[in-house]
Amino acid sequence: MTRTEEPTPGRHIDVRGEGPVVLLWHGRGADSRGVLDALSELIAAHGLTVVTPDWDAGHPDGGRADLLTSVRRAREIAAEQGQDPDTIVVAGWSLGGVAAVSLALNASRIGAGVGGLVLIAPADGPRALDPLTGQPLPTELPSGAGRCRVDIVYGEDDTITPPDMVCGLELRLRAAGWSTSLHAIDADHGEVVGATYDERRDAFVPARTERARDGARTVAQIVAAATSSS
């Protein structure tokens, strides 16, 4: 069962399933939670509650307010279910992966602990501005000692956040003492979440190919495993 909430005017959050909470962030495209419907359903099928918000990186604040609103709502849902809010797993795709890293880096300042991260084809580098700070991720990452585990997934045919970029981010995290794992999938940038790029719309849309379904199924399994260790 899925319910849709409107925490602020014009912004919506889908809440799907029952169980430990996963906060799932889409990428750069404005208000694109629907692109992740298939992945969200697959994650929820593992006995999890999936909170998938709209947000807009093109907003003057870079999407910060929408993302933090979704963090607060996910934590409320976790508490309502008797779960420690600091054990929530945050999964982010593309630019949403940058935001997820930032949330973990700034957890104490924001006042929201993170139980685990799943970064799905995350961006990195000077052009990937963190929606929470407006800056790229730090060149020198803070120590990961005592912090959450990070699972990183990339598509072997990804040309938007290519494997070298994603593996470079994993290496930087690992060098800073974060506990990481790296997963390669037979997919491109959209297929890792069950989506495809539509040139006519200039946007990612849900895909129906078997490769995209396989990509989303694999990512859902990785997310489910992350919740069991958070």
The percent range for helix content is 25-40%
Overall number of strands: 10
What kind of sheet is the major sheet?
8 strands, mixed
CATH structural fold name: Rossmann fold
Please state the CA-atom Rg, rounded to the nearest Å.
16 Å
**Shape descriptor:** globular
What is the strand content?
A: 15-25%
- End-to-end CA span: 25 Å
In DSSP terms (H or I, runs of 4 or more residues), the helix count works out at 6
CATH superfamily: Alpha/Beta hydrolase fold, catalytic domain
* Strand order in the sheet with the most strands: 1-2-4-3-5-6-7-8
Broad CATH class: Alpha Beta
Mean pLDDT: 96
InterPro entries: AB_hydrolase_1, AB_hydrolase_fold
GO molecular function: hydrolase activity
Pfam families: Abhydrolase_6
Protein name: Alpha/beta fold hydrolase
Could you describe the 3D structure shown?
The protein has 230 residues and is α/β, with parallel strands linked by helices. The protein has one domain (2-229): Rossmann fold (3-Layer(aba) Sandwich). Helix content is 32%, strand content 23%. The chain has helices at 37-44, 64-80, 95-105, 107-110, 163-175, 210-229, and strands spanning 2-8, 11-16, 21-25, 49-53, 89-93, 116-120, 149-155, 180-185, 195-198, 203-206. Strands 1-2-4-3-5-6-7-8 form an eight-stranded mixed β-sheet, with helices on both faces. It has a two-stranded antiparallel sheet with strand order 9-10.
Salient structural properties:
single chain, 230 residues, alpha/beta, Rossmann fold
Topology overview:
Blueprint: E1 2-8, E2 11-16, E3 21-25, H1 37-44, E4 49-53, H2 64-80, E5 89-93, H3 95-105, H4 107-110, E6 116-120, E7 149-155, H5 163-175, E8 180-185, E9 195-198, E10 203-206, H6 210-229
Parallel strand pairs: 3-4, 3-5, 5-6, 6-7, 7-8
Antiparallel strand pairs: 1-2, 2-4, 9-10
Helix pairs in contact: 1-6
